[in-house]
């Protein structure tokens, strides 16, 4: 079984890239972020024609998350991260797929930092930690998957010294990620590639892709019931080089 995450940076504008990648790799479950489409604007027919059923939480022009499943119907269990009824941003959706509970998330960027957006990011992170604790308490296989907008360590960024003040790399954010993982989750990519410099994002500016000046922002965290089944993990980095590609590449794990 293969689970993947892909920040598509606009599901309609980059639909050919998404469909090409789905046909090439045939993952069983896919978590998408940054749909940038309203609920009624999700390309359900094209996704279905590619062999995938889907649940999604859209938002016009911004955010948006979706879970796709091949050969199965995802059973939605939650829409929106609990803990703040006033938060209307579409950043979390959860579904049961083939015996695994999948939480697809798009954590806030938080820039500029410090500031209101950074404060929102930290509050969102706190809510995620609380919800993750609740998921672990159920004792079922769970994967928290998506664009965390966190560079966990210096190994995950091409030039750490240039990112010290950025909301992706500030100590508060890295500490929050570490606290989350230490509560019982396994960072799947790092578990299998502990010393390898791996990136999942390359900015459109300054020829970042050509220079391999990347960041690791997209993560798959596994509960103990799932971590023991982990077989392999990787990044489909070549997708970033396709025409009209997202600035993120798909990341995947296999059981």
Q: Could you explain how this protein is built, in words?
A:
The chain is of the alpha+beta class and 255 residues long. The chain has a single domain (2-254), classed as Deoxyribonuclease I, Chain A, CATH 3.60.10.10. It contains seven helices and 14 strands. It has helices spanning 15-25, 44-49, 116-137, 171-182, 188-192, 208-211, 224-227; strands at residues 2-7, 29-33, 52-57, 65-70, 75-79, 92-97, 100-106, 142-147, 186-187, 201-202, 214-215, 218-222, 232-235, 251-254. Strands 3-4-2-1-14-13 form a six-stranded mixed sheet. A six-stranded mixed sheet has the order 5-6-7-8-12-9. Strands 10-11 form a two-stranded antiparallel sheet. Helix 1 (15-25) links the parallel strand 1 and strand 2. Helix 3 (116-137) packs parallel to helix 4. The longest helix has 22 residues, at 116-137. The protein is globular and about 45 Å long. It starts with a strand and ends with a strand. Belongs to the DNA repair enzymes AP/ExoA family. This is Exodeoxyribonuclease III. Keywords: Hydrolase, Magnesium, Metal-binding. Its cofactor is Mn(2+); Mg(2+).
Summarize the structure.
By secondary structure, this protein is of the alpha+beta class.
Keyword list:
255 residues; alpha+beta; Deoxyribonuclease I, Chain A; 6-stranded mixed β-sheet; 14 strands; 25% helix; 26% strand; globular
